[in-house]
Amino acid sequence: MTLRAKLLLAPAPLWLALILVGGLAVADLAEIGRASQGMLRDNLSSVLAVRSMTEALEGLNRDAVLMLHEGGQALPQMGARRRAFEEAFQEQKASVIEQGEAEATEALGQSWREHLALLEQYPFLGRPEAARRFYFERLLPSFQAVKSAADSIVAMNQAAMMRKGEIARHQAENTLAAMAGVTVTAFLAGLLASMVLTARLLRPLAVLGQTVGRIGGGDFEARVRLGGHDEIASLAREVNAMAERLASYRQSSLGELLLAQQAAQSAIDSLPDPVLIFSTEGALVSLNQAAESLCRRRGRAGQDPDGLEPTLGERLRALLTKVVVDKGPYLPRGFEEAVRLTGPEGERYLLPRAVPVQDAGGGLNGVTILLQDVTRLRLFDQVKSDLVATVAHEFRTPLTSLRMAIYLCLEGVPGPLTSKQSELLAAARADCERVQAMVDDLLDLSRISEGGLKMRSIPLAADELVRGALMAHAAAAQRAGVRLEAQPPLSSARVLADPERLVLVFSNLITNALRHTSQGGVVACGALAEAEAVRFWVRDSGQGIAPEHLERIFDKFYGLTGARAGGQGLGLYIAREVVRAHGGEIGVESAPAQGSRFWFTLPLA
Length: 605
Hints:
Layout: H1 3-9, H2 12-69, H3 77-94, H4 101-121, H5 128-216, H6 231-269, E1 275-279, E2 284-287, H7 289-292, H8 310-326, E3 339-343, E4 346-358, E5 364-373, H9 375-410, H10 419-449, E6 458-461, H11 462-472, H12 474-480, E7 483-486, E8 494-497, H13 499-515, E9 522-529, E10 533-540, H14 547-550, H15 571-581, E11 586-590, E12 596-603
Helix pairs in contact: 2-3, 2-5, 4-5, 5-6, 9-10, 10-15, 11-13, 13-15
C-alpha cells in the first residue's frame, strides 16, 4: 500500500464515528418531529372547531339582539350560522381524543339543542316587551351556557397541548443528552483509533529522521533499517545510498580539502594587513595573524563581543550590514573614512574595504574585511594639505596687494590710462579675483581636513537666507546675462545654522549654477519646510549633468568640462562638508539638456 493511501485511511475510524453519530441524530430528530406533530394535530383540530362554533354562536346572538330593534322578524343569515355551528360541532365530535372530552362534547350538544329550540320560539312572540323579556330571561342565559360548554372544551385541549409540549420537551432534552454522550464517545473512540494508526504510520519517519540527523552530524556509517515497498521505504534506501556516497567522498576528498583550507589560511596569514572574515549574522569566523593583535583584549568591559575596539567593531559591523544589504563590495573613497586606533606603538589609521563571500550558486555566505594600514599615506596627505594651506595663506598678502594696485590703477589714481591698458588691467583684475577664490577654497579645504569647521549655530529665517544669497550674487548674475530669482513660496521657518559657513554653501551652489548656465538662462532658489528640516535648493537651466558624473560630483577636485570658466572642483565638496557639519544632507537631481537642481537640508531651530 502506498503512503498516500495510508495517510488517507488513517483518519477513517474518526470519519466512520462521525457518520454513525450523524445518522443516529437525524433519525432521532425525525422521530421526535413526527411524534410532536401527531400529538398536537388532534388537539389543534378541536380548538379550531370550537372556535368556529363560538363564532357562529356569537353571530346568532348578535342577530337575536338585532331582531329586538326590527320587529321580531328572523334574519336570513341565521340559517347559515346554524349550519356553520352544526358542521363545526360534527368536526369536534370527530376530534375527541382526551379523557372527558366526549362528555363535554355531549353537554355542548345538549346546550346547543336547548338554545336552538329557544331561538325557534323567539321570532313568534309578537309584542316587543315579551320578546325583550324572553331574550334576557331565557335566550341570553342559554347562549352563555353553550359558550361556557365550548370554552370548557377549549381549556381541556389547551391543557392537553401544554402537557404534551412539556412531554416533548423532556423527550428532546433526553435525546440531546443521549446524543451528546454518544457523540463524545464516538469521537474519542475514533480519535484514539486514528492516533494509533497515525503513530504506527509515522514511526518509520521518526526512525528515518533520527538516522538523517546522525548522517548530518558526520556519522556516515548510520543506516536506515526499514522494510516495505512504500515511499518511505524508497526514501530510506536513497538515504542509505547517499550515506555510502558521502562516506566514500569523505575518504577520498578529506585530505585535499584540508590541504586547500591550510593553503588558503596561509595565504591570508601572509598578508601584512589585518583580514577578518564574518558570517552574515555578524559572528567573527576567521582572521589572519595581523588581525589577532586587534582582538588581544577580548572580554574587557565596553569591548566588542569579538574583542575588537568599540570604534572599530562598530564600524566593521556597519560595513557588514551594508555589504549584506547591497550584496556587493564596499570600497572607500578617501582617507577620511579611515578608523583611528590608539595603541602602545602610537596612532594607527586603518582603511576598511569589504568583499562578499559567495557560494557556487551566488548566495552570500559571509563577508571578508581588509583593513589597509594607511597611517603613512595619511601622514603624506596631511603634509600635502599643510603645504597647500601654507602656500595659500602666504598667497593672500601679495595677492591682496596686487588686487589693490590693479584697482587703484583702474580708478586712475596714478594717472590716466589708455583703453588698451584699461582692458589689460580689467583682465588682470578678473584673474586676481579667480585666484583669490581659489585661495579661499584651498584655505576652507585645509580647515575641513583638519576638522577645524567650528559651527556657531543660531536661529535664522529661511526666506531671509535665500534673499540674502540672491542679493550677494545679483551683480555676478547680471554680468553673466543670467536671471537670478527666488521661487515662491519661500518658507519663513527658522533653521539652526552658522550664517558665515552657510554663505559658503549658497555661494558655491549659486556660483556653480551661474557658471554652467548660458546667457539668457535662469537660476532659481527656494526654501520648503519639511517635517523636521527646511530643504533649500538652487536650480539652473544649463546643460545638465551626465548620469556617470552624479555620484562623484561632490568629490574633492572633481570638476566638469564645458563651463565658461572652470573651477577647481572644491566648491561642491566644501558645500557638502559644511552641510554635513550642520547635521543636514545634500544632493543633486539632473539630466542632460534638462538643467540641474542642487538641494540641501538644515534642521529646524
